[in-house]
Amino acid sequence: MFTIKGKTGDWELVIGLETHIEVLSNSKLFSGASADYNPSVAPNTQVSMVDVAMPGMLPVLNTYCVEQAIKMGLGLNAEISRHSSFARKQYFYPDLPQGYQISQPADVPPVVGRGWVEIMGDDGQPKKILIERAHLEQDAGKLKHDVHPTKSFADYNRTGVALLEIVTYLNTKDPDSNSYISSPDAAERYLREIREIARALGVSKANMEEGSMRADVNVSVRRVGEKTFRTRTETKNMVSFKFIKSAIEYEARRQIEIYENGGTVSQDTMRYHQDDGTTSVMRSKEDALDYRYFPDPDLLPLEISDEQIERIRRTMPELPSATRARYTADFGLSEYDAARLTENTDISRWFDTAVAGNAKRAKSIANWMISELFAHPENWDVKNEKSGIIDGMRIITPSDLSELVEMLSDNTINGKQAKEIFIKMLDGESGTPREIADKFGMKQMTDTGAIAAIIDEVIAANPSQVEQYKSGKVGLLGFFVGNVMKKTGGTANPAVVNEILRKKLA
Ligand code: ADP
Ligand code: MG
Questions:
Q1: How many angstroms does the Cα of residue 86 sit away from the middle of ligand 2?
Q2: Potential cystine with 424: which of 117, 262, 429, 504 (Cβ 3.0-4.6 Å)?
């Protein structure tokens, strides 16, 4: 269990995330304006009369956005509501000219109900994080206060773009439930999982740097073993994994300190400061009354049919949790390795390609990917990796790695040579691993007679070490192995060397 040590004992963390992902769609949730508001687009060029709330304009629900929400709901293993509706959440701010946001507040059925997401828990085992709901709502525009000394500007390109807000569930009646996020790292794993599900389904780019994924972070603490949940705070609008983890940790420590000094935590909405990693109170928590929700009279109730859900279900690709299950069951990979290889669909696709037709080497291929390829970022398309999309490793291909592992497994080359070939490939050496091995005369020496002869030479040349070994200093075996390897130019099969050496020195 992840805990934080206080002055008076250990504390555990309770974390709830409200994750907003921007729905991929040609047009906005209630208007025909383009939803592709990327930064290179000039301000206010993708705005319809509906988005800026011209009198008499009526919203029309974009059914494609609803289908995207259903798809995501199925990816979250969630109930899809057959009857749903939209309501107005009143707030007056220039980034939303309507004066309210069309949303699905807690007391109307959201498109997506109760579900779950599987992540790797803090003990390395799979854990289900419960989802309370996911609802559709409108995004707001962007205000620009730094363009002019005395004026502010508003860009409404993003106004009205569909957001899907995914909220984790905390069962307050079951204090021992192990179904919520309970550490900063688990929060990151959860968000990455949401991101990968959304991307696999084509529901969202879910890219934090580009703002197509943002999260509100709810945190409370309690003493280890305590049977109730305590008051939480909510830190708004977080846009990086690193900041989210830092905000959770800072908030938890702040709350622990308050409790340990005899104080109480109030349910506030916090702001995170990137420069020093602290949080401060933005406002005290608003409640539903402040928003004066009421059903949107311009929109019909949203009815979703079983047929519609089934049609969407049939288009679903394999999702990361199913991929992980396949890797552990079919290839015998550990939960950890399976998790690393499904962090991203490009990675799992790469792995699947490397393993295709060579399933018996899947475990070695996985090991090489995780310990060697991941350690060499130059092999990845760095530019794309930054935006979260790795479109394949460019230098070493899946079939290269598969062939390398095969040569190693069938003793054509030894581990040292395999690493050398790997580095040569990274450095741009052309050709397949076999061609590179041929070109540089890399071949494992497996002829036991020849190896034995070299071993005899090494033994003859080092009588005092032989003496010491025989009188019990068995650690010297490595010294002999090293000398034999040196004499064979690193080409001998180390297992064979070890075996013959042991016999001859016995
Ligand atoms: P609101 O809409 O007022 O922000 P919600 O009930 O939707 O409130 O909860 C927001 C998030 O806070 C959810 O993910 C929920 O699981 C989480 N949450 C609720 N109570 C706690 C608590 N005591 N500690 C940590 N998280 C909590
Ligand atoms: Mg909230």
A1: 17
A2: 429
Ligand 1 near 64 CB (within 6 A): no
Residue 199 C-alpha to ligand 2 middle, in angstroms? Answer: 24
CB 230 within 8 A of CB 222: yes
CA distance 284 to 266: 8
Nearest to 199 by CA among 357, 287, 75: 75
Please give the full DSSP string across 405-421, using - where no structure is assigned: HHHHHTTSS-HHHHHHH
Domains, the chain, ranges and CATH?
19-206+286-308 (no CATH), 320-439 (no CATH), 448-505 (1.10.10.410)
Whose atoms come closest to the Cα of 20: which ligand? Answer: 2
* pLDDT by 10s per residue, the chain, length 506: 899 999 999 999 999 999 999 999 999 999 999 999 777 899 999 999 999 999 999 999 999 999 999 999 999 999 999 999 999 999 889 999 999 999 998 788 999 999 999 998 999 888 999 999 999 999 999 999 999 999 999 999 999 999 999 999 999 999 888 999 999 999 999 999 999 999 999 999 999 988 899 999 999 999 999 999 999 999 999 999 999 999 999 999 999 999 999 999 999 999 999 999 999 998 887 676 678 899 999 999 999 999 999 999 999 999 999 999 999 999 999 998 998 898 878 788 889 999 998 889 999 999 999 888 887 766 555 434 433 334 445 578 888 999 999 999 988 898 889 999 998 988 888 899 999 999 998 888 878 888 899 999 999 999 999 999 988 898 899 999 999 988 888 888 888 888 899 999 88
